[in-house]
Prior knowledge:
Elements: E1 7-11, H1 16-27, E2 31-36, H2 39-49, E3 55-57, H3 63-77, E4 82-85, H4 100-127, E5 131-135, H5 148-168, E6 174-180, E7 182-183, H6 186-194, H7 196-203, E8 212-213, H8 215-228, E9 232-235, H9 239-244, H10 246-249, H11 252-276, H12 282-289
Parallel strand pairs: 1-2, 1-4, 2-3, 4-5, 5-6, 6-9, 7-8
Amino acid sequence: MGLEGKVVFVTGAARGIGAAVAAEAHRRGARVALAGLEPELLAERARELGPDVPHFECDVTDMDSVQAAVDGTVEALGGIDVVLANAGIGTYGTVEKGDVESWLRTIDVNLNGTYRTVHAALPHVIERRGYVLVVASVASFAPLAGMSSYNASKAGVELFVRALRQEVGFRGVAAGTVHPSWIDTDLVRESEQDLESFRTMRAKLPWPVKATTSVEKCATAIVDGMEKRSGRIFVPWGVAFLFWLRSVLGSSLGERATAADMEVMVPRMEREIAELGRAGSRRTAEINDLPSNERSELGSGT
Length: 302
């Protein structure tokens, strides 16, 4: 599927992966629509791409907000060929000592927000026999202590897309997931700055899980996958090995291999998070503390 003239609707488009994918798709001839928090930054991204790029303030935890962005895109560009559900956040905290509201909000943004986005856009995508793409993660199948909400949400969106493929594949619609490892975004940089234990655990991971990929290379891989209507996109490509080894990672043998480190690292992480005084990056924590009607003033990042 060439992207020339196709309408691509992107959530979480103010920064990070979403902004980079929108720019790369636009470069290949797509007509893009940007949705997300941080309206001023969204407007700046749209101006950089040109006068024909609509942008919509959108909170994926609010169905009315998502529907308005989808309706605005259809009105401005005539329909939707590709939807990229990219908006997401990550929070810190163990199951025992983590902040309950932050855990639940991560699920609401990453998993429920994906459902709201796809649900709103799907009738238009079906009409054009288009493509649904959801940003999952290597965390979909490689868990990390202290990130249970992120792991659960990203594992959830993978199975959500697999079920969606069964529902719409026979109607000519393709659906896929993106599984990035560490991408050089605000979310990853801030997490490493906040927690020494996070940096230590990451350093012990094997290649390619611990490798950092630039946002630009990630965007290129994602847009390449759009053109192929791929079922899965791995960034970097070596993450595919972990996907095929997921049964080993989840086995008792795989879990025993990390048990000794966890005895030291989990209490250390809990102390660091307690000293930090928040359950995520500064921006994520600020959003979590705001009433829902004020969250549009800030961005979650991706």
